Amino acid sequence: MARQDDVLPNDWRALLPHIEIAHHITGRIRLRLVNMPLLAAVSAASRMQGWLDALRSLPGIASVEVNVAARSGVIVYDPAAIAPQTWPDLVANRRTEQATRLLDLLDRTQRDRRPG
Fold this sequence. Notes:
This protein is 41% helix and 22% strand. It is α+β, with helices and mostly antiparallel strands and 116 residues long. It has one domain: Gyrase A, domain 2 (2-Layer Sandwich), CATH 3.30.1360. A 4-stranded antiparallel β-sheet has the order 1-2-4-3.
């Protein structure tokens, strides 16, 4: 059984039906969990910690802030490194080149961050 900090991007995809873009301007996106009770949101946030840490460490990501009580998170990113269209593609689970590249990079980053 996987540890809580072993969550991979596939688990992100499992949350996709519950994620919507609340607001997006170039360089800053707010994502919101919808149709998910607070307790489930808290559980999801704890399971996603490894993924969030990997996201925070990526080139082009300036910050990632999560507000579990509000069921939302804000990602500040460099649009020169991550194209703005990547985020809607990711949330819609579209397998565009940019979204796939970001997920692959997250997977590698998270795997590399795991202790030996």
